[in-house]
Amino acid sequence: MTKDNILIRRAERQDVPLLLDFIRGIARYEKMENEVIASREVLDREMFDEHRAEAVFAVVDGREVGFALYFYNFSTFIGHSGLYLEDLFVWPEERGKGYGKALLLHLVRIAREHHCGRMEWTCLNWNQLSIDFYLSL
To answer: What are the structural domains, with CATH classification, of the chain?
Structure first.
């Protein structure tokens, strides 16, 4: 499967269980699974009633293989909103196929459409696989 076969779609309310699966997946990968206290109810309220965050999925052959969760912040220095990438995660067996890059490029387009002054994210300093991914862009 190549990146040309990827569909990026917005998360919807009915995706809350899937979002929680991805959140638990990234938490396992980051060795922080015990720190996940988010529930379906909290995600449903915060993301779809309060609109505090948004998410997109990378879908290949009808299966969600990765996700990105983001929200908007504001920079007083530049006087514009920004897009903050909270989580970017692709299932381990699907890595190296361009899905993470496709998700990130989709967020760049969203940031441009919303006239964001910047796009930010952080990466754990021990996570060399992710560091190498970001440096390759």
So the answer is: 3-136 (3.40.630.30)
Q: DSSP letters along 58-115, please?
A: EEETTEEEEEEEEEEEEETTTTEEEEEEEEEEE-GGGTTSSHHHHHHHHHHHHHHHTT
- Enter the pTM of the model: 0.90
pLDDT in tens, 83-118: 999 999 999 999 999 999 999 999 999 999 999 999
Q: Is 43 exposed, middle or buried (0-12, 13-18, 19+ CB in 10 A)?
A: buried
Name the residue among 56, 110, 123 with its Cα closest to residue 81: 110
Residue 72 is among the residues annotated as catalytic for this protein: no
